[in-house]
Amino acid sequence: MAVYTEVGDEELEKFVAAYDLGQVVACKGIAEGVENSNYLLQTDHSTYILTLYEKRVAKADLPFFLGLMEHLARHGIACPTPIKGRDGKALRDLAGRPAAIISFLQGMWPRRALPHHCREVGIALARMHLAGESFELKRANALSVAGWRTLFDGCRARADEVRKGLGDEIAKELEIIAAHWPKELPAGVIHADLFPDNVFFLGDRLSGMIDFYFACNDFLAYDLAVCLNAWCFEPDNAFNATKARALLRGYNEGRKVLAEEMAALPLLARGSALRFLLTRLYDWLNHPPGAFVKPKDPMEYLKKLRFHRSVKGAGAYGL
């Protein structure tokens, strides 16, 4: 979450007047994340999240994202729910951007992920995958192999400004991963961005998952690979096998990981690391002036990518 677009008081009041949410009491920008402009909106009725969708989020994809959250919430998944106005619409325009008001979830994301957090994430991810089976809308993963090539084309010329030789290393990695990327694995709706700051806890209990704006249809095991990268490395980028086992055991409680998915996990994790290396690299090199949020260091994911490159099988992860 972040703030790129400012909202004036008068236009905010006019926007909120389309809902039965009461009077605006406060509206404060949330300076986290990198994708959209987000505000903590308080009215005399309750607290909400106001999101303005920025340029990277295609307006045509918003019915999928908002519909998915509504679908998952109906199926018992703890996630935000889009709020509909009196006209029955959840999506409208504000300050020149598509915008929506989303329900507010209680909880805090874990600043230091522990094995019990990883197990809870695995349980929740499996439940989300199963609930998504009956969601009718489809959205291809725009940040799979073809999307990585496009991102790389947009920053290759300047990649060595971040680290000497980085451009050539990414180019070689992209070719290898693309040549061996799986073609047949169980697929469905995935979150695709389930980092610790997108998961809330109340004590030791997972209270909600947020930020579904990368959700899409792809291999279910790729979602696990994203979580391995996001949850199972220490601050020094050492892999923590105890966390990985907790994540997988939690997931297996709801949905059994198949043998072919386990065999593909090292390559999927390698691809996931490349995906976040590229998006972070692009954001690092194209940081909007005046944005409240600081771009994340792409080198974290270069280190993770190099780790996965050395892995010969899922056993190396302690799985």
Write structural notes for this entry:
The chain is α+β, with helices and mostly antiparallel strands. The protein folds into two domains: 9-103, Phosphorylase Kinase, domain 1; 115-317, Aminoglycoside phosphotransferase (APH), C-terminal lobe (Aminoglycoside 3'-phosphotransferase, Chain: A, domain 2, Alpha-Beta Complex), CATH 3.90.1200. It contains nine helices and nine strands. α3 runs antiparallel to α6 (220-231) and α4 packs antiparallel against α5 (166-180). The longest helix has 27 residues, at 259-285. The protein starts with 8 loop residues before the first helix and ends in a 10-residue tail after the last helix. 40% of the residues are buried.
